[in-house]
Amino acid sequence: MTQIRWELSAPPVTVGIVVQVFVEGVGERAAKPRVLAVAGRALGAVPPPLQVLIGIVSVQVGASLAKQLFAVAGPAGTVTLRLFFAALVLLLVWRPAVRMGRRALPVVVAYGLVLGTMNLAFYQALARIPQGIAVTVEFLGPLAVALAGSRRWLDVLWALLAGGGVVLLAETRGDLSLLGLLFALIAGACWGLYILLSAALGKRTQEGKGLALGMAVAAVAAMPAGIVESGTSLLSPWVLGIGLAVALLSSVVPYSLELEALRKIPPRVFGILMSLEPAVAALSGLLVLGEALHPLQWLAICCVVAASIGATRSAREGP
What we know:
Elements: H1 15-26, H2 34-43, H3 48-94, H4 104-126, H5 131-138, H6 140-148, H7 153-171, H8 178-204, H9 209-230, H10 237-262, H11 267-274, H12 277-289, H13 295-314
Helix pairs in contact: 1-8, 1-10, 1-11, 3-4, 3-9, 3-10, 3-12, 4-8, 4-9, 5-8, 5-12, 6-7, 6-8, 7-13, 11-13, 12-13
């Protein structure tokens, strides 16, 4: 497997960072299970840029579908279903041993707790503000991590542009929930921690076993909140079915597509494509949920997208 390196000063600034650092940690040790090898051959026929775009659409359609479940299962209940089914699929695929070394255990637990908190906070934001805005604000987390190690003036410009997008969103706060924006910021901060922990997870665990165990920890961590909020409604067959669909669309499918795409295209190109995620989220919210945004809100989203693309393009050009 090709190793893909990642540095804080040289991002792609999105979910793709997580996949990149995980691949780097796994390196040549990874031996894909047969089911993943078959899936990889099938995905190989799809052009890598299209794989990335399909993954982005899958994530955002999954979020839109999840939001429609809130009325029955609630945000916490929906998170519980998503993480439970995602963990179940990953555990079945990778079959990790429960016992692990002392160096790996704290990382797996921390990774799972951060993952669970990130999803709980994001879905709480999603319940209160439009999907495009929630994703845009959350996107500031990985963007901040990506720019943190840079000393170049050009990256300061990208940071200011992203900050300008947040200011524009604040200017339209009359029809936005401040609590929703706060939850989105918390989710973004967790996303930044999630990126850093993913690097350590890939280095201290083998193949996808650490990911599977971390997802299981996240599911267990989120489960009490989901049960308290939703109770027995989580056991309804159609709720379980939608929860499984959300897990596949939001976790399993995009992860597989991103990993496959990263084997064939440079990380910089991957990061530029993934930078479109806030805009795709806004479009998904509009088409699936009917969430129309004001012109200033669209402009704010464009600012964050432009900052992400700019930071990614300049990442490897040097000072």
